[in-house]
Amino acid sequence: MFRTALRNVLAHKARLLMTVLAVTLGVAFVSGTLVFTDTLSKALSGQSAKSYEGVAVSVSSYGTARDENGVKEGDPGISQQVLDKVKAVKGVDTVSGRVSGFAGVGDENGKLIGTGWANQGTNYAPVKDGKDPRYAFTEGGGPASAGQIALDRETARKGAYKVGDKVRVATNGPVKEYTLTGVFTTDDGQVNAGGSMVLFDTPTAQALYLQPGFYRELSVSAKPGASADQLLADIKPLLGKNATAKTGAELAAEQAKAIEQQMSGMSTGLLIFAGISLFVGIFLIYNTFTMLVAQRTKELALLRAVGAARGQVIRSVLAEAGVVGVVSATIGLVSGIGLAIGMRGLMETAFDAKMPAGDLVVAPGTVVAAVLIGVVVTMIAALLPAWRTGRIPPVAAMGSAHLPATGKSLVLRNVFGGVLGLLGAGVTFLGVSQGSDGRYTVAAGGFFLMLGLIVLLPLLSKPVIAAVRPLLSRLFGVPGKLAAQNAVRNPRRTAVTAASLAIGLTLVTAMSVIGVSMGKAVDRMSTDKLKADYKVSMSGGIGSLDKSVAETLAKAPGIKAVSPQTAGYLKINDTFKSASGVNPATIGQLLNVEVVGGDLAALGRGEVAVAEKTARSAGLSAGSTVDVGYEDGTKAKLKVGAVYKDLDGLLSPYVLDDKVLSAHSEEPYIPEVYVKVAAGESKAGEKAVVDALGNNPAITVASRQDMRNEMGGLVNTALNIMYGLLGMALIISVLGVVNTLAMSVFERTQEIGMLRAVGLDRGRVKNMIRLESVVISLFGAVLGVAVGGFLAWAGGKTFSKSVPGYELVLPFDRIGVFVLLAAVVGVLAAMWPARSAARLNMLTAIKTE
Amino acid sequence: MTTTHYAPHTAQAVAARATGLSKVYGQGETQVVALDNVSVDFGRGRFTAIMGPSGSGKSTLMHCVAGLDTFTSGSVRIGDTELGSLKDKQLTRLRRDKIGFIFQAFNLLPTLTALENITLPMDIAGRKADQQWLDTVIEMVGLSGRLGHRPTQLSGGQQQRVAVARALASRPEIIFGDEPTGNLDSRSGAEVLGFLRNSVRELGQTVVMVTHDPVAASYADRVVFLADGRIVDEMHGPTADGVLDRMKAFDAKGRTS
To answer: Is the ipTM here above 0.95?
Structure first.
């Protein structure tokens, strides 16, 4: 029987082409993901291992200035004395102390070089031979005194800096100018990822990032023969209580594990989309095998007639699917490896992210997974058609019946689909009624709704397509009329084809609607709630502004109102609540705070303002008091001076005078400062702010428009990534359309021949096939858009409460593009089938039985 | 070797004419001559049958004359139009406007009703059917009650009657039938042949039909006999027995030579 299966595969090469392609693409996606993440993971671990090369023991201390009771400990890090003691331990070769933090380098226009979060500054710590082994200088040497720095090669190149040039560098404080003494290369991961690195001399770095005489980390190297574990044991007793020490090998292993976890998160994300592609592929394979089996009814019946058991016939079809699966999976695996190589190149060119070098990793697990997935998916898809062959009676070999009745009752199917669809819709509505808790309910409901609709599609296809038939025949004449009729000739096949397109479009539409609605919500917030003209924050959005920023701005000319937005917390009833510290005098001019009780001016008297919802749940109102604990442990009884309407995203639920909040914090965290300028949101206004800050490259001044653009950009980027990842599923569904059309052309050879004979020219035969394709594609697309829109509405209901200002926005422009694209896809998918239909030899076509 | 130009018995208008028509497949050793220098006229308003054993080239001759197939040399005219010089698009238009077809396998579109199938060539051409003529044709083939049926709801004989009506409906210059009774039982076959003969006698239609059935051929006004790609004989006012005898003679000759 297996030989029969193999022969059948070979005999139907052309008809199996699309199946092979679909499985190949899906498997390539899976294996590409696995190979890429494995390779990256190994390269990154290799890189981190390399950075611990020669490090026997590493000591770090993120000690705080005060303990949990607020008592001064005077332990900001590792002191020089500790370093000296460690150096004296037997077996220690060298010890280098390190201290690091944010450092932004400006180009000649004062703009920041590199991505904000990855710009670091650290100290140059030469060891005994006068060199720091972490950095290899390509020009000049390391900084030796205050006022000198070295830059990594890429940053120097981008800023066109040469040794001896003046470079403006910003840390959290004001900008300073330094002289460049050298340019270096390094294995540092952040630098490889496109960040910049500035090297200061040790005292400068200590002053900038910690406190003179203190380090965050020590790297200890061992003399030949000394064991790292022994060193660790000897060093540990010398350290303060906030310091931790580990061997280099331990740290390398820890980091490798962290990288692996990160990578597995990434690969899971990608595999979800690969799964969608494969799922869509199942529809195509199902169609192919249904047709192959239908064509072979007589042949299979003959096998039964000459004595093949029912099981044998079923197995022969499954074996055929298995062969196809193995072949496609193998091609897919090879293409996947190619894809992984290509992805690496793409990351480097498109995202300017340097991938660490390393060998390609094709794990045995990847190979097994790829082949298994290809075979299993193909066989699952072929299961139903195979099972149906078992029901072919031997007598069919004698009869002339050569296609099974496609008009077989759809009643059972429709009832099942209807129940499933209604159940799905019901569950979705249930989820909507549950609000934020209903997220998973909505997802489950959406899934069942989609399944129900897929089952119902053959029923739906008839009236929907019948409705457009008059339009098609009016616009395109006979080819239009015939196309619409052909599209519903085999409703099951049309449905399966359209379903695969609908799945992709459902996801794309739902994501677009939610994404755009989110963007609009944020947009609305920045227009309605924000009165400030500019938001000042650290470049890259991470890190605190210096305390001086707000003060400097307040004194600068042309500035009307300034308020820091200090982020802190209060301990209330033993739980930490986030709190904002603002300037009570100006906050009313910068944010649109709606006071519902009391008066904001009370903040100036050291009272607290509470957001309305929080006040309600905590039983607070204007005039009541609340017991709070500050960050430094001080306790206080605060009077509630005002209750205001929630301003999520702009103000925390508890608001205090910044002076009060900062006074109780060692290092107040100020993510942003809001500014209103006399000139308003304009070039002059922006200049006033930028100038006041000393043209600091590390600080970003964003106008309201900038904030809006940034959010729009984020939404677009997120959506584009989604579109890209769903692209594979869409390509496979296009292959499905090609497949279905090719089948139709093949089955209707005789008809097409007749049409040609009675006078339908080649062009119009092509049109007929094209239109059929467009009708099927649009049917799938419209359904997908409708379901996607519904699910986006339902999903939006579950999180509209947590996103202030969220309202459903239907992006008709995008949706229009999707539908248009579906039509284009229809035309493209029909290209090959239409051409082969037009090229049919009329005489052989008419004669084909 | 001389070739005879087989013309209709009486001097009359010619609907289609092949002159020195040859059709050769393949080259060198594998070369097959399907038609060898055939010259024949098909008279207007006449019912002509083309007969011959299988492989004699009778279908090829019809296909070439009907503009369905290309030929190697010679000329074919339908009315005033020389087919040899036409491009595919022009040939398609010629078939659409001037030629009607009846196939052995009916070849109806299952998605269309009987009426829609009948008017299909005119719909393709974007022409409106002449309602009176259409009624005449439909009445003649006896389909009045079944115009809304789809082909699957009709018997084989009824389906072929639809095909006959389709061929007649656009009033083509000439109708070609390729074994139109091949798939029918003898009663339905007789009906269809009767319609064809009536269309010639009563409506003045021109019909050329390929068949291997002497009874079918006996409905024609004239029978042209083909063997080995050549026209070997013709018979006017044939009877089934006469045709059968003639065929037997060819058969015997074929076996002895």
So the answer is: no
